[in-house]
Design a protein that fits this description.
The protein contains 8 helices and 5 strands, in the order H-H-E-E-H-H-E-H-E-E-H-H-H. The chain is of the alpha+beta class and 228 residues long. The protein has a 5-stranded antiparallel β-sheet with strand order 2-1-5-4-3, with helices on both faces. Helix 1 runs antiparallel to helix 2, helix 3 runs antiparallel to helix 5 and helix 7 packs across helix 8.
Length: 228
């Protein structure tokens, strides 16, 4: 990849870091840029979730299908890239011995070559970037190196968006809890500390988040009827 093209791509990713889009839109932009700059027909992200892996922003249903197959089989390049931190390349999936079951099914779907690299920035690992083509391809050392650099900058952008979303959720939750406190204070003639204690007790006895209790109070303007 030429230097100017590389700089242009990294500039696009830097813009995403500052963008106010949500994680889905940012992931879709990352995938689109990757496809354009590396020259693959299909792409998507595999991300770690509490219960395993998930497919994020697949460019085509075929990507989601073959990625989910890897998650199910616990076998394949994106799973290994996410776990092991390496970059995996296959120039022809019809002759790929490393992941026999997955490769056979991916090739049957029309995919012939792929590149998967870890989504990592510092100590933060999100998963893997997965790139696919419908024809055999000899990925070069430059392709591998660029994919690694791209993945680091893409991870930085995705982490920045995730952090902003977490902050927004936290601020919204505090605002909602404050509104619920105000409602209880007015309705039951209690102070702020007592109102918060009531909300917390309901949260604990029902085993639901405090935000959920606050939402119920704001919606109904009182405590849930069965708990009064």
């Amino acid at each position: 990849m030429e230097r100017d093209s590389l700089l242009s791509t990294l500039s696009e990713l830097a813009v995403l870091t500052l963008d106010e889009s949500d994680i889905e839109n940012t992931a879709e932009a990352v995938v689109s840029i990757a496809m354009h700059t590396i020259g693959c027909e299909y792409a998507g992200l595999t991300v770690f979730e509490p219960n395993g892996f998930a497919s994020l922003a697949p460019s085509d249903p075929i990507v989601e299908k073959v990625d989910k197959l890897q998650h199910h089989l616990q076998q394949g390049p994106c799973v290994e890239a996410a776990w092991e931190g390496d970059t995996f390349i296959s120039g022809d999936l019809t002759a790929e011995p490393r992941w026999p079951e997955w490769s056979k099914q991916a090739a049957a779907e029309g995919l012939r070559s792929m590149l998967a690299t870890r989504l990592v920035s510092g100590d933060h690992v999100l998963g893997a970037l997965n790139l696919y083509s419908s024809a055999p391809r000899d990925f070069t050392a430059d392709d591998r190196d660029f994919a690694r650099v791209f993945a680091v900058h893409a991870t930085t952008a995705l982490l920045a968006v995730r952090e902003r979303e977490s902050l927004r959720v936290a601020v919204d939750a505090r605002t909602l809890i404050g509104q619920a406190q105000g409602i209880l204070m007015e309705r039951f003639d209690i102070d702020a500390d007592r109102a918060f204690s009531v909300l917390r007790r309901y949260s604990q006895t029902r085993n639901v988040k405090l935000r959920v209790i606050a939402e119920d109070v704001v919606a109904s303007r009182t405590l849930p009827p069965e708990e009064r």
